[in-house]
Amino acid sequence: MSTKPNPLAGQDSYRELFRTGNIFPWLYPPVDFLHFDKFGSVALPAKSASATVLQFTVPRGRNGRITHLGVDVVANGGTAFVVGVVPATLTFNFFRDASQGLTGPLFPDYESFSFLPGSVIQPIPFVDGLLVVENQQVTLIVNNVNLTKDTQFVAARAVGYFYPKNREPKESGNK
Question: Lower Cβ count inside 10 Å, N or C end of the chain?
Answer without folding.
Answer: N
